[in-house]
Design a protein that fits this description.
The complex is a heterodimer of chains A (95) and B (490). Chain A has 95 residues and is mainly α. Chain A has a domain of 36 residues. Chain A has 3 helices and 2 strands, in the order H-H-H-E-E. A two-stranded antiparallel sheet of chain A has the order 1-2. In chain A, strand 1 and strand 2 form a beta hairpin. The longest helix of chain A has 18 residues. Chain A starts with a helix and ends in a 7-residue tail after the last strand. The relative contact order of chain A is 0.08. Chain B starts with 8 loop residues before the first helix and ends in a 10-residue tail after the last helix. In chain B, strand 10 and strand 11 form a beta hairpin. Chain B has one domain: Amidase signature (AS) domain (Amidase signature (AS) enzymes), CATH 3.90.1300. Chain B is of the alpha/beta class. The chains are: A mainly alpha (95), B alpha/beta (490).
Amino acid sequence: MAIDAATVRKVARLARIREPEERLEPLAQELNTIISWIEQLEEVDTDGVEPMTSVVAVALPLRDDVVTEGGDTSRILSNAPKSADGFFIVPKVVE
Amino acid sequence: MSDLTKLTLKAALAGLKARDFSSVDITKAHIEAIEQARGLNAYVLETPDHALAMAAESDARLARGEGGALEGAPLGIKDLFCTEGVRSTAASKILGNFVPAYESTVTSQLWRDGAVMLGKLNLDEFAMGSSNETSAFGPVINPWRRSGSDAALTPGGSSGGSAAATAADLCLAATATDTGGSIRQPASFTGTVGIKPTYGRCSRWGIIAFASSLDQAGPIAKTVEDAAIMLRSMSGHDVKDSTSLPVEVPDFASYVGKSVKGLRIGVPKEYRVPGMPAEIEKLWADGIAWLKDAGCEIVEVSLPHTKYALPAYYIVAPAEASSNLARYDGMRYGLRAGGPSLTDVYEESRAQGFGEEVKRRILIGTYVLSAGYYDAYYLKAQKVRRRIADDFDQAWQTCDALLTPTAPSAAFALGEQSDDPIAMYLNDIFTVTTNLAGLPGLSLPAGRDAQGLPLGLQLIGRALDEGTLFSLAGALEKAAGFTAKADRWW
Protein backbone atom coordinates (compact mmCIF):
# COMPACT_ATOMS: atom_id res chain seq x y z
CA MET A 1 0.00 0.00 0.00
CA ALA A 2 2.86 2.36 -0.80
CA ILE A 3 2.09 6.05 -0.94
CA ASP A 4 3.28 7.84 -4.07
CA ALA A 5 3.38 11.49 -5.05
CA ALA A 6 -0.05 11.23 -6.64
CA THR A 7 -1.54 9.92 -3.40
CA VAL A 8 0.03 12.76 -1.44
CA ARG A 9 -1.41 15.24 -3.95
CA LYS A 10 -4.86 13.71 -3.47
CA VAL A 11 -4.64 13.58 0.32
CA ALA A 12 -3.31 17.15 0.53
CA ARG A 13 -6.22 18.25 -1.61
CA LEU A 14 -8.67 16.44 0.67
CA ALA A 15 -7.04 18.13 3.66
CA ARG A 16 -7.08 21.52 1.86
CA ILE A 17 -3.36 22.05 2.39
CA ARG A 18 -1.40 23.39 -0.56
CA GLU A 19 1.77 21.39 -1.05
CA PRO A 20 4.15 22.51 -3.77
CA GLU A 21 4.90 19.92 -6.44
CA GLU A 22 8.52 19.46 -5.28
CA ARG A 23 7.33 18.53 -1.76
CA LEU A 24 5.15 15.65 -2.93
CA GLU A 25 7.90 13.09 -3.40
CA PRO A 26 9.73 13.80 -0.08
CA LEU A 27 6.38 13.78 1.73
CA ALA A 28 5.48 10.46 0.12
CA GLN A 29 8.71 9.01 1.52
CA GLU A 30 8.10 10.40 5.00
CA LEU A 31 4.54 9.16 5.09
CA ASN A 32 5.59 5.75 3.79
CA THR A 33 8.11 5.40 6.61
CA ILE A 34 5.46 6.22 9.19
CA ILE A 35 2.73 4.11 7.58
CA SER A 36 4.96 1.06 7.26
CA TRP A 37 5.88 1.40 10.94
CA ILE A 38 2.18 1.62 11.76
CA GLU A 39 1.47 -1.50 9.74
CA GLN A 40 2.95 -3.72 12.45
CA LEU A 41 -0.59 -3.56 13.87
CA GLU A 42 -1.45 -6.27 11.35
CA GLU A 43 0.29 -8.75 13.68
CA VAL A 44 -2.36 -8.22 16.34
CA ASP A 45 -5.22 -10.69 16.30
CA THR A 46 -8.34 -8.54 16.54
CA ASP A 47 -10.91 -11.06 15.37
CA GLY A 48 -14.11 -10.53 17.28
CA VAL A 49 -12.74 -7.51 19.14
CA GLU A 50 -15.16 -4.60 19.44
CA PRO A 51 -13.51 -1.35 18.36
CA MET A 52 -13.02 1.02 21.27
CA THR A 53 -14.89 4.22 20.60
CA SER A 54 -14.87 5.66 24.10
CA VAL A 55 -12.62 5.17 27.08
CA VAL A 56 -15.42 6.07 29.46
CA ALA A 57 -18.25 3.62 29.76
CA VAL A 58 -21.07 6.10 30.23
CA ALA A 59 -24.12 6.83 28.12
CA LEU A 60 -23.84 10.05 26.20
CA PRO A 61 -25.79 12.68 28.14
CA LEU A 62 -28.66 14.53 26.52
CA ARG A 63 -29.74 18.05 27.23
CA ASP A 64 -33.00 19.84 26.54
CA ASP A 65 -33.16 21.19 23.03
CA VAL A 66 -33.41 24.83 24.01
CA VAL A 67 -31.46 27.96 23.21
CA THR A 68 -29.01 28.63 26.03
CA GLU A 69 -27.00 31.45 24.57
CA GLY A 70 -26.90 33.71 21.57
CA GLY A 71 -27.21 37.29 20.46
CA ASP A 72 -23.45 37.67 20.67
CA THR A 73 -22.78 38.76 17.11
CA SER A 74 -20.04 41.21 18.00
CA ARG A 75 -18.20 38.67 20.20
CA ILE A 76 -18.48 36.00 17.52
CA LEU A 77 -17.13 38.36 14.88
CA SER A 78 -14.42 39.79 17.12
CA ASN A 79 -11.70 37.59 15.57
CA ALA A 80 -12.99 37.60 12.00
CA PRO A 81 -10.33 38.27 9.35
CA LYS A 82 -13.00 40.27 7.50
CA SER A 83 -16.52 41.24 8.54
CA ALA A 84 -19.16 43.84 7.78
CA ASP A 85 -22.68 44.59 9.01
CA GLY A 86 -22.71 41.64 11.38
CA PHE A 87 -21.55 39.11 8.77
CA PHE A 88 -18.35 37.25 7.99
CA ILE A 89 -16.96 38.31 4.64
CA VAL A 90 -15.71 35.27 2.70
CA PRO A 91 -14.54 34.70 -0.87
CA LYS A 92 -17.26 34.33 -3.45
CA VAL A 93 -18.61 30.76 -3.36
CA VAL A 94 -21.32 30.78 -6.04
CA GLU A 95 -20.50 31.96 -9.54
CA MET B 1 11.48 39.17 47.99
CA SER B 2 12.67 37.07 45.04
CA ASP B 3 12.91 33.98 47.23
CA LEU B 4 9.11 33.88 47.26
CA THR B 5 9.38 32.17 43.89
CA LYS B 6 11.21 29.26 45.53
CA LEU B 7 8.19 28.33 47.65
CA THR B 8 6.08 25.32 46.93
CA LEU B 9 2.44 26.01 46.11
CA LYS B 10 1.44 24.59 49.48
CA ALA B 11 3.88 26.78 51.42
CA ALA B 12 2.87 29.85 49.40
CA LEU B 13 -0.82 29.26 50.09
CA ALA B 14 -0.06 28.94 53.82
CA GLY B 15 2.03 32.14 53.76
CA LEU B 16 -0.70 34.01 51.88
CA LYS B 17 -3.36 32.84 54.29
CA ALA B 18 -1.23 33.82 57.30
CA ARG B 19 -0.59 37.14 55.52
CA ASP B 20 3.18 36.71 55.85
CA PHE B 21 3.31 38.26 52.40
CA SER B 22 0.69 39.49 49.96
CA SER B 23 -0.39 38.08 46.64
CA VAL B 24 0.95 41.25 45.03
CA ASP B 25 4.35 40.53 46.66
CA ILE B 26 4.60 36.96 45.39
CA THR B 27 3.15 37.90 42.00
CA LYS B 28 5.70 40.70 41.58
CA ALA B 29 8.49 38.31 42.51
CA HIS B 30 7.36 35.96 39.77
CA ILE B 31 6.94 38.74 37.20
CA GLU B 32 10.52 39.79 37.89
CA ALA B 33 11.78 36.21 37.61
CA ILE B 34 9.94 35.80 34.28
CA GLU B 35 11.52 38.98 32.89
CA GLN B 36 14.96 37.69 33.79
CA ALA B 37 14.30 34.28 32.27
CA ARG B 38 13.17 35.30 28.77
CA GLY B 39 16.08 33.30 27.38
CA LEU B 40 14.21 30.12 28.35
CA ASN B 41 11.34 31.11 26.04
CA ALA B 42 8.87 29.51 28.46
CA TYR B 43 6.20 32.21 28.21
CA VAL B 44 4.75 33.17 24.85
CA LEU B 45 2.71 35.93 26.47
CA GLU B 46 3.38 37.65 29.79
CA THR B 47 0.35 39.29 31.39
CA PRO B 48 1.85 41.26 34.31
CA ASP B 49 -0.89 43.92 34.51
CA HIS B 50 -3.58 41.28 34.46
CA ALA B 51 -1.67 39.33 37.13
CA LEU B 52 -1.25 42.31 39.44
CA ALA B 53 -4.93 43.21 39.14
CA MET B 54 -5.92 39.64 40.03
CA ALA B 55 -3.40 39.64 42.89
CA ALA B 56 -4.83 42.87 44.33
CA GLU B 57 -8.30 41.32 44.26
CA SER B 58 -6.95 38.25 46.03
CA ASP B 59 -5.33 40.40 48.68
CA ALA B 60 -8.65 42.15 49.28
CA ARG B 61 -10.36 38.79 49.74
CA LEU B 62 -7.60 37.50 52.01
CA ALA B 63 -7.82 40.69 54.10
CA ARG B 64 -11.50 39.92 54.66
CA GLY B 65 -10.58 36.43 55.77
CA GLU B 66 -12.08 34.98 52.57
CA GLY B 67 -10.54 33.24 49.63
CA GLY B 68 -10.55 29.97 47.72
CA ALA B 69 -8.26 26.96 47.64
CA LEU B 70 -5.67 28.72 45.45
CA GLU B 71 -6.21 32.27 46.68
CA GLY B 72 -3.44 34.59 45.56
CA ALA B 73 -1.22 31.90 44.00
CA PRO B 74 0.43 32.94 40.69
CA LEU B 75 0.21 30.23 38.02
CA GLY B 76 1.27 29.74 34.40
CA ILE B 77 -1.26 28.61 31.78
CA LYS B 78 -0.36 26.45 28.81
CA ASP B 79 -1.30 28.37 25.68
CA LEU B 80 -3.68 25.61 24.66
CA PHE B 81 -6.27 26.83 27.19
CA CYS B 82 -8.53 29.60 25.91
CA THR B 83 -8.43 32.60 28.20
CA GLU B 84 -11.06 35.31 27.79
CA GLY B 85 -9.63 38.52 26.42
CA VAL B 86 -6.08 37.11 26.43
CA ARG B 87 -4.45 35.91 23.19
CA SER B 88 -4.49 32.12 22.84
CA THR B 89 -2.45 30.56 20.04
CA ALA B 90 -1.73 26.83 20.54
CA ALA B 91 1.75 28.01 19.43
CA SER B 92 0.46 28.02 15.85
CA LYS B 93 0.62 30.74 13.25
CA ILE B 94 -2.81 29.76 12.06
CA LEU B 95 -4.46 31.17 15.17
CA GLY B 96 -2.52 34.42 14.76
CA ASN B 97 -3.78 36.92 17.28
CA PHE B 98 -6.86 34.94 18.27
CA VAL B 99 -8.38 36.44 21.41
CA PRO B 100 -11.04 34.13 22.85
CA ALA B 101 -14.37 35.58 23.89
CA TYR B 102 -14.66 32.82 26.50
CA GLU B 103 -12.69 31.09 29.23
CA SER B 104 -11.87 27.37 29.34
CA THR B 105 -13.65 25.50 32.11
CA VAL B 106 -10.38 24.39 33.75
CA THR B 107 -8.92 27.90 33.94
CA SER B 108 -12.24 29.38 35.03
CA GLN B 109 -12.14 26.97 37.98
CA LEU B 110 -8.62 28.14 38.88
CA TRP B 111 -9.82 31.78 38.91
CA ARG B 112 -12.92 30.74 40.87
CA ASP B 113 -10.50 29.38 43.50
CA GLY B 114 -8.50 32.62 43.58
CA ALA B 115 -5.46 31.84 41.43
CA VAL B 116 -3.55 34.57 39.57
CA MET B 117 -2.54 34.24 35.89
CA LEU B 118 1.05 35.21 35.10
CA GLY B 119 0.83 34.51 31.38
CA LYS B 120 0.59 31.89 28.66
CA LEU B 121 3.15 29.12 28.31
CA ASN B 122 4.88 27.82 25.21
CA LEU B 123 4.16 24.36 23.77
CA ASP B 124 4.57 22.31 20.64
CA GLU B 125 2.21 23.54 17.93
CA PHE B 126 -1.28 22.19 18.75
CA ALA B 127 0.48 20.04 21.39
CA MET B 128 1.97 17.88 18.61
CA GLY B 129 5.53 17.13 19.59
CA SER B 130 7.84 15.78 22.27
CA SER B 131 10.55 18.44 22.30
CA ASN B 132 8.81 21.82 21.97
CA GLU B 133 10.56 22.30 18.64
CA THR B 134 7.35 22.50 16.63
CA SER B 135 6.26 25.72 18.38
CA ALA B 136 5.78 28.71 16.07
CA PHE B 137 7.48 30.74 18.82
CA GLY B 138 10.62 28.57 18.79
CA PRO B 139 11.50 25.95 21.39
CA VAL B 140 11.55 26.32 25.15
CA ILE B 141 15.02 25.77 26.63
CA ASN B 142 15.28 23.35 29.54
CA PRO B 143 16.61 25.09 32.68
CA TRP B 144 18.61 21.90 33.26
CA ARG B 145 21.96 21.40 31.50
CA ARG B 146 24.34 18.47 31.39
CA SER B 147 27.11 19.00 33.89
CA GLY B 148 30.03 20.78 32.29
CA SER B 149 28.07 21.60 29.14
CA ASP B 150 26.07 24.59 28.00
CA ALA B 151 24.28 22.76 25.19
CA ALA B 152 20.61 23.73 25.05
CA LEU B 153 18.39 20.80 26.02
CA THR B 154 14.73 20.26 25.31
CA PRO B 155 12.31 20.50 28.24
CA GLY B 156 10.25 17.84 26.48
CA GLY B 157 6.85 18.35 24.99
CA SER B 158 4.30 19.24 24.38
CA SER B 159 3.93 20.99 27.76
CA GLY B 160 7.56 22.17 27.66
CA GLY B 161 6.75 25.72 28.72
CA SER B 162 4.71 24.48 31.69
CA ALA B 163 7.50 22.16 32.82
CA ALA B 164 10.37 24.63 32.30
CA ALA B 165 8.50 27.49 34.00
CA THR B 166 7.70 25.31 37.01
CA ALA B 167 11.27 23.97 37.23
CA ALA B 168 12.79 27.46 36.93
CA ASP B 169 10.44 28.99 39.55
CA LEU B 170 8.64 31.14 36.98
CA CYS B 171 5.27 30.10 38.45
CA LEU B 172 4.16 28.14 41.51
CA ALA B 173 2.57 25.54 39.22
CA ALA B 174 1.18 25.35 35.71
CA THR B 175 -1.65 23.86 33.73
CA ALA B 176 -0.73 21.37 31.04
CA THR B 177 -2.36 18.82 28.75
CA ASP B 178 -1.47 15.26 27.82
CA THR B 179 -2.54 13.42 24.66
CA GLY B 180 0.26 10.84 24.51
CA GLY B 181 2.64 11.89 27.29
CA SER B 182 2.71 15.68 27.02
CA ILE B 183 2.49 16.25 30.78
CA ARG B 184 4.59 13.35 32.03
CA GLN B 185 7.57 13.37 29.63
CA PRO B 186 8.29 17.11 30.18
CA ALA B 187 7.86 16.61 33.94
CA SER B 188 10.44 13.81 33.75
CA PHE B 189 12.84 15.99 31.72
CA THR B 190 12.67 18.92 34.15
CA GLY B 191 12.54 17.35 37.62
CA THR B 192 8.89 18.29 38.18
CA VAL B 193 5.72 16.38 39.05
CA GLY B 194 2.96 15.95 36.49
CA ILE B 195 -0.25 13.99 36.44
CA LYS B 196 -2.58 13.13 33.59
CA PRO B 197 -5.78 12.21 35.38
CA THR B 198 -8.42 9.73 34.24
CA TYR B 199 -9.99 10.70 30.92
CA GLY B 200 -13.06 12.75 31.81
CA ARG B 201 -11.77 14.08 35.15
CA CYS B 202 -11.07 17.54 33.72
CA SER B 203 -13.36 19.25 31.26
CA ARG B 204 -11.92 19.69 27.77
CA TRP B 205 -14.19 22.66 27.10
CA GLY B 206 -12.17 25.64 25.93
CA ILE B 207 -8.97 23.62 25.49
CA ILE B 208 -7.89 23.79 21.85
CA ALA B 209 -8.53 20.24 20.61
CA PHE B 210 -5.84 17.89 19.26
CA ALA B 211 -7.21 14.34 19.59
CA SER B 212 -10.44 14.48 21.52
CA SER B 213 -10.59 10.88 22.73
CA LEU B 214 -7.07 11.17 24.19
CA ASP B 215 -6.68 14.81 25.34
CA GLN B 216 -6.75 15.39 29.07
CA ALA B 217 -5.71 18.37 31.20
CA GLY B 218 -3.60 18.10 34.32
CA PRO B 219 -1.06 20.05 36.36
CA ILE B 220 2.72 20.29 36.42
CA ALA B 221 3.97 21.24 39.88
CA LYS B 222 7.02 21.25 42.14
CA THR B 223 5.86 18.52 44.52
CA VAL B 224 3.37 15.66 44.64
CA GLU B 225 1.18 17.52 47.10
CA ASP B 226 1.22 20.66 44.93
CA ALA B 227 0.06 18.58 41.97
CA ALA B 228 -2.75 17.19 44.12
CA ILE B 229 -3.86 20.69 45.19
CA MET B 230 -3.87 21.85 41.56
CA LEU B 231 -5.73 18.81 40.25
CA ARG B 232 -8.56 19.28 42.74
CA SER B 233 -9.26 22.77 41.41
CA MET B 234 -8.90 21.69 37.78
CA SER B 235 -11.23 18.66 38.05
CA GLY B 236 -14.98 18.37 38.06
CA HIS B 237 -18.00 17.62 35.93
CA ASP B 238 -18.89 20.09 33.22
CA VAL B 239 -22.08 19.94 31.17
CA LYS B 240 -20.23 21.64 28.30
CA ASP B 241 -18.04 18.53 27.78
CA SER B 242 -20.14 15.43 27.14
CA THR B 243 -17.18 13.18 28.04
CA SER B 244 -16.65 14.89 31.38
CA LEU B 245 -17.45 12.45 34.19
CA PRO B 246 -20.26 13.24 36.64
CA VAL B 247 -18.27 12.09 39.68
CA GLU B 248 -17.19 13.70 42.94
CA VAL B 249 -13.78 15.32 43.09
CA PRO B 250 -11.82 13.89 46.02
CA ASP B 251 -9.48 15.94 48.19
CA PHE B 252 -6.46 14.54 46.35
CA ALA B 253 -3.96 16.16 48.74
CA SER B 254 -5.40 14.13 51.62
CA TYR B 255 -3.98 11.00 49.96
CA VAL B 256 -0.41 12.28 50.07
CA GLY B 257 1.33 10.85 53.11
CA LYS B 258 -1.14 7.98 53.51
CA SER B 259 0.37 4.57 54.16
CA VAL B 260 0.88 2.44 51.08
CA LYS B 261 1.38 -0.73 53.08
CA GLY B 262 -0.13 -3.79 51.46
CA LEU B 263 -0.65 -2.18 48.05
CA ARG B 264 0.31 -4.46 45.17
CA ILE B 265 2.57 -2.82 42.62
CA GLY B 266 2.78 -4.29 39.15
CA VAL B 267 6.02 -4.13 37.20
CA PRO B 268 5.22 -4.67 33.52
CA LYS B 269 7.94 -6.70 31.86
CA GLU B 270 7.18 -5.28 28.40
CA TYR B 271 8.44 -1.85 29.55
CA ARG B 272 12.00 -3.22 29.60
CA VAL B 273 12.81 -2.01 26.11
CA PRO B 274 16.05 -2.71 24.28
CA GLY B 275 18.53 0.13 24.43
CA MET B 276 17.14 1.61 27.62
CA PRO B 277 19.97 3.39 29.48
CA ALA B 278 21.30 1.50 32.50
CA GLU B 279 20.62 4.55 34.65
CA ILE B 280 16.91 4.29 33.90
CA GLU B 281 16.98 0.55 34.67
CA LYS B 282 18.60 1.41 37.99
CA LEU B 283 16.12 4.18 38.76
CA TRP B 284 13.30 1.73 38.15
CA ALA B 285 14.93 -0.83 40.46
CA ASP B 286 15.34 1.90 43.11
CA GLY B 287 11.66 2.77 42.82
CA ILE B 288 10.70 -0.88 43.25
CA ALA B 289 12.95 -1.15 46.34
CA TRP B 290 11.54 2.06 47.85
CA LEU B 291 7.96 0.86 47.48
CA LYS B 292 8.91 -2.53 48.90
CA ASP B 293 10.44 -0.75 51.91
CA ALA B 294 7.20 1.19 52.29
CA GLY B 295 5.34 -2.12 52.63
CA CYS B 296 4.14 -2.67 49.07
CA GLU B 297 4.04 -6.06 47.46
CA ILE B 298 5.77 -6.19 44.07
CA VAL B 299 4.29 -8.37 41.35
CA GLU B 300 5.45 -8.90 37.81
CA VAL B 301 2.67 -8.32 35.29
CA SER B 302 2.39 -8.60 31.55
CA LEU B 303 0.88 -6.02 29.21
CA PRO B 304 1.42 -7.98 25.99
CA HIS B 305 0.12 -5.33 23.56
CA THR B 306 2.39 -2.54 24.81
CA LYS B 307 4.51 -2.43 21.65
CA TYR B 308 1.42 -1.76 19.55
CA ALA B 309 0.36 1.27 21.56
CA LEU B 310 2.44 3.84 19.67
CA PRO B 311 1.49 2.63 16.18
CA ALA B 312 -2.19 2.61 17.25
CA TYR B 313 -1.77 6.08 18.70
CA TYR B 314 -0.28 7.33 15.43
CA ILE B 315 -3.46 6.33 13.66
CA VAL B 316 -6.01 7.46 16.21
CA ALA B 317 -4.38 10.80 17.13
CA PRO B 318 -3.71 12.07 13.58
CA ALA B 319 -7.15 10.88 12.45
CA GLU B 320 -8.85 12.85 15.19
CA ALA B 321 -6.49 15.78 14.65
CA SER B 322 -7.23 15.95 10.92
CA SER B 323 -10.90 16.21 11.79
CA ASN B 324 -10.46 18.69 14.67
CA LEU B 325 -8.12 20.94 12.72
CA ALA B 326 -10.49 21.15 9.75
CA ARG B 327 -12.00 24.16 11.52
CA TYR B 328 -8.95 26.28 10.70
CA ASP B 329 -10.13 27.47 7.32
CA GLY B 330 -9.33 31.18 7.42
CA MET B 331 -12.98 32.18 7.47
CA ARG B 332 -14.02 33.07 11.01
CA TYR B 333 -10.78 33.65 12.90
CA GLY B 334 -7.04 33.29 12.54
CA LEU B 335 -4.87 33.56 9.47
CA ARG B 336 -6.44 34.15 6.05
CA ALA B 337 -4.15 33.98 3.05
CA GLY B 338 -4.31 33.45 -0.70
CA GLY B 339 -7.18 33.88 -3.09
CA PRO B 340 -9.19 34.69 -5.03
CA SER B 341 -11.23 31.45 -4.94
CA LEU B 342 -12.53 29.86 -1.75
CA THR B 343 -10.43 26.73 -2.30
CA ASP B 344 -7.32 28.86 -2.82
CA VAL B 345 -7.96 30.62 0.48
CA TYR B 346 -8.47 27.33 2.32
CA GLU B 347 -5.37 25.71 0.87
CA GLU B 348 -3.10 28.71 1.19
CA SER B 349 -4.21 29.68 4.71
CA ARG B 350 -3.57 26.16 5.93
CA ALA B 351 -0.29 25.84 4.03
CA GLN B 352 1.04 29.05 5.60
CA GLY B 353 -0.59 28.66 9.00
CA PHE B 354 0.36 25.11 9.96
CA GLY B 355 3.91 23.97 10.71
CA GLU B 356 5.53 20.89 9.18
CA GLU B 357 4.70 18.39 11.94
CA VAL B 358 1.08 19.50 12.12
CA LYS B 359 0.75 19.18 8.33
CA ARG B 360 2.37 15.75 8.45
CA ARG B 361 -0.15 14.55 11.02
CA ILE B 362 -3.11 16.06 9.18
CA LEU B 363 -1.97 14.25 6.02
CA ILE B 364 -1.57 10.94 7.86
CA GLY B 365 -4.95 11.39 9.50
CA THR B 366 -6.63 12.28 6.23
CA TYR B 367 -5.00 9.27 4.54
CA VAL B 368 -6.02 6.73 7.18
CA LEU B 369 -9.59 8.03 7.18
CA SER B 370 -9.88 8.24 3.41
CA ALA B 371 -12.12 5.95 1.39
CA GLY B 372 -10.82 2.41 1.22
CA TYR B 373 -8.46 2.65 4.17
CA TYR B 374 -10.80 3.29 7.09
CA ASP B 375 -11.12 -0.38 8.07
CA ALA B 376 -7.46 -1.20 7.47
CA TYR B 377 -6.18 1.59 9.69
CA TYR B 378 -8.63 3.44 11.88
CA LEU B 379 -10.93 0.55 12.73
CA LYS B 380 -7.95 -1.75 13.27
CA ALA B 381 -6.33 0.79 15.61
CA GLN B 382 -9.53 1.13 17.62
CA LYS B 383 -9.59 -2.67 18.02
CA VAL B 384 -5.95 -2.72 19.11
CA ARG B 385 -6.79 0.05 21.52
CA ARG B 386 -9.39 -2.25 23.08
CA ARG B 387 -6.71 -4.95 23.42
CA ILE B 388 -4.45 -2.48 25.23
CA ALA B 389 -7.25 -1.48 27.61
CA ASP B 390 -7.97 -5.19 28.22
CA ASP B 391 -4.29 -5.74 29.13
CA PHE B 392 -4.66 -3.19 31.92
CA ASP B 393 -7.91 -4.77 33.10
CA GLN B 394 -6.06 -8.09 33.35
CA ALA B 395 -3.25 -6.46 35.31
CA TRP B 396 -5.70 -4.97 37.83
CA GLN B 397 -6.62 -8.54 38.79
CA THR B 398 -3.24 -8.89 40.48
CA CYS B 399 -2.10 -5.35 41.30
CA ASP B 400 -3.35 -1.93 42.40
CA ALA B 401 -0.98 0.30 40.43
CA LEU B 402 1.93 0.01 38.00
CA LEU B 403 5.43 1.43 38.32
CA THR B 404 7.45 2.20 35.17
CA PRO B 405 10.01 4.72 33.96
CA THR B 406 8.36 7.84 32.49
CA ALA B 407 10.56 8.22 29.42
CA PRO B 408 13.22 6.10 27.72
CA SER B 409 15.90 8.79 28.15
CA ALA B 410 16.80 11.98 29.97
CA ALA B 411 16.34 15.34 28.24
CA PHE B 412 18.09 15.40 24.88
CA ALA B 413 19.64 18.30 23.02
CA LEU B 414 17.52 20.50 20.80
CA GLY B 415 17.86 19.34 17.21
CA GLU B 416 19.03 15.87 18.22
CA GLN B 417 15.87 13.98 17.21
CA SER B 418 14.06 16.41 14.97
CA ASP B 419 15.06 14.73 11.69
CA ASP B 420 13.43 11.42 12.51
CA PRO B 421 9.71 11.55 13.30
CA ILE B 422 9.59 7.95 14.55
CA ALA B 423 12.55 8.42 16.94
CA MET B 424 10.69 11.44 18.29
CA TYR B 425 7.45 9.48 18.62
CA LEU B 426 9.28 6.82 20.70
CA ASN B 427 9.61 9.34 23.54
CA ASP B 428 6.02 8.49 24.43
CA ILE B 429 6.53 4.73 24.51
CA PHE B 430 5.83 4.42 28.27
CA THR B 431 3.19 7.13 28.55
CA VAL B 432 0.93 6.65 25.53
CA THR B 433 -0.69 3.42 26.77
CA THR B 434 -2.58 5.27 29.53
CA ASN B 435 -4.00 7.78 27.06
CA LEU B 436 -5.30 4.96 24.89
CA ALA B 437 -6.85 3.24 27.91
CA GLY B 438 -8.00 6.49 29.58
CA LEU B 439 -6.14 5.72 32.81
CA PRO B 440 -4.39 8.14 35.19
CA GLY B 441 -0.59 8.40 35.03
CA LEU B 442 1.73 10.42 37.24
CA SER B 443 5.42 11.24 36.78
CA LEU B 444 7.67 12.32 39.61
CA PRO B 445 11.40 13.05 39.74
CA ALA B 446 13.26 10.18 41.38
CA GLY B 447 16.92 10.50 40.46
CA ARG B 448 19.53 11.96 38.15
CA ASP B 449 21.68 10.48 35.43
CA ALA B 450 25.49 10.62 35.35
CA GLN B 451 25.31 14.02 33.68
CA GLY B 452 23.14 15.40 36.44
CA LEU B 453 19.86 15.43 34.51
CA PRO B 454 16.60 14.54 36.24
CA LEU B 455 14.85 11.23 35.54
CA GLY B 456 11.24 10.42 36.29
CA LEU B 457 9.26 7.41 37.42
CA GLN B 458 5.70 6.86 36.31
CA LEU B 459 2.81 5.44 38.31
CA ILE B 460 -0.27 4.20 36.45
CA GLY B 461 -3.54 3.59 38.25
CA ARG B 462 -7.04 2.28 37.81
CA ALA B 463 -9.63 4.63 36.33
CA LEU B 464 -10.58 7.33 38.86
CA ASP B 465 -8.02 6.03 41.37
CA GLU B 466 -5.73 9.08 41.33
CA GLY B 467 -5.84 8.94 45.15
CA THR B 468 -3.75 5.76 45.24
CA LEU B 469 -1.29 7.33 42.80
CA PHE B 470 -0.87 10.34 45.07
CA SER B 471 -0.25 8.08 48.10
CA LEU B 472 2.35 6.04 46.21
CA ALA B 473 3.95 9.14 44.70
CA GLY B 474 4.15 10.67 48.17
CA ALA B 475 5.98 7.57 49.42
CA LEU B 476 8.36 7.59 46.44
CA GLU B 477 9.00 11.33 46.76
CA LYS B 478 9.96 10.86 50.39
CA ALA B 479 12.23 7.92 49.67
CA ALA B 480 13.87 9.48 46.61
CA GLY B 481 14.49 12.75 48.41
CA PHE B 482 14.82 14.57 45.10
CA THR B 483 15.48 18.22 45.98
CA ALA B 484 17.90 19.23 43.22
CA LYS B 485 17.19 22.35 41.20
CA ALA B 486 18.77 23.46 37.94
CA ASP B 487 21.71 25.81 38.46
CA ARG B 488 20.61 29.24 37.45
CA TRP B 489 22.41 30.22 34.23
CA TRP B 490 19.69 32.23 32.55
